[in-house]
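Technical annex, item 7. During the second reporting period the consortium partners agreed on a shared format for inverse folding records so that results from different sites could be compared directly. Each record opens with the tokenized structure and is followed by the designed sequence. A conforming record, contributed by the partner at site C, is shown below for reference.
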């Protein structure tokens, strides 16, 4: 690892910040439209270890937004993403998880990492990641996109993602402009870099929402929900459920 490669960002957060990136580990769940820029920019920044979770294979329709998978149609996305990282920055260690997260494997998968980045295409996985990160006290960086719109936020404990959305809404579909995924994935990567280096002001308990069609952005402050079963710590059946339907979980009274 050479200082020349990282010289421009060292000007921003110093050698100490770069050392923290080198020593950090980040798990990226989903190597699709959001995961592609997250993985690319974390690898370029010199994060020492990146884990990539994705069970899907690359399809032609993915390439409009999943820009790290060029030439890899048919290949598992986690393996394809690891191939991209090794070409971009051989200093980065990559862990490949070519399977789906489930209530049975999510805790063991997340446990070795400092920060978790959620880039899935389902509410089910978002809730599962939130609950696991809360239980293990890991920072959780979230984003979601649809068409021209998106949101990004970070959760370091209370409030959590369930305080924002106590139960899962219906899935909104797959319409997406590739640049929207790219923009919000880059914001996720920036949040991770801020968290690791101690630079700037991470979006702790906040969401930034934006509409790229109108170039309209605003910030939501998420209040703590005293009835949140995860934040309260009084959980019943967590990770014993299948996270289907509303993804609701019960709280012990």
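Designed sequence (site C submission):
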């Amino acid at each position: 690892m050479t200082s020349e490669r990282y010289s421009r960002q060292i000007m921003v957060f110093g050698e100490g910040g770069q050392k923290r990136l080198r020593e950090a580990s980040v798990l990226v769940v989903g190597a699709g439209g959001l995961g592609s820029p997250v993985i690319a920019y974390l690898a370029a920044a010199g994060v020492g270890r990146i884990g990539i979770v994705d069970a899907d294979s690359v399809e032609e329709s993915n390439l409009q937004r999943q820009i790290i998978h060029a030439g890899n149609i048919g290949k598992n996305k986690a393996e394809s993403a690891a191939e991209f990282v090794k070409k971009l920055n051989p200093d980065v260690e990559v862990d490949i998880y070519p399977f789906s997260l489930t209530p049975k494997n999510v805790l063991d998968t997340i446990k070795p990492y400092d920060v978790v980045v959620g880039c899935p295409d389902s509410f089910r996985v978002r809730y599962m990641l939130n609950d696991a990160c809360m239980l293990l006290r890991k920072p959780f960086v979230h984003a979601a996109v649809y068409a021209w719109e998106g949101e990004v936020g970070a959760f370091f404990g209370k409030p959590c993602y369930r305080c924002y959305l106590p139960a899962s809404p219906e899935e909104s579909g797959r319409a997406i402009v590739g640049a929207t995924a790219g923009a919000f994935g880059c914001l996720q990567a920036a949040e991770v870099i801020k968290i690791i280096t101690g630079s700037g002001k991470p979006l702790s308990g906040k969401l930034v929402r934006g509409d790229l069609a109108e170039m309209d952005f605003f910030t939501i402050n998420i209040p703590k929900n005293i009835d949140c079963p995860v934040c309260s710590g009084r959980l019943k059946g967590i990770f014993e459920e299948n996270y289907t339907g509303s993804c609701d979980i019960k709280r012990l009274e």
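The mean pLDDT is 91. Helices lie at 7-23, 35-45, 77-88, 106-110, 123-136, 161-164, 178-197. All partners now use this format for quarterly exchanges.
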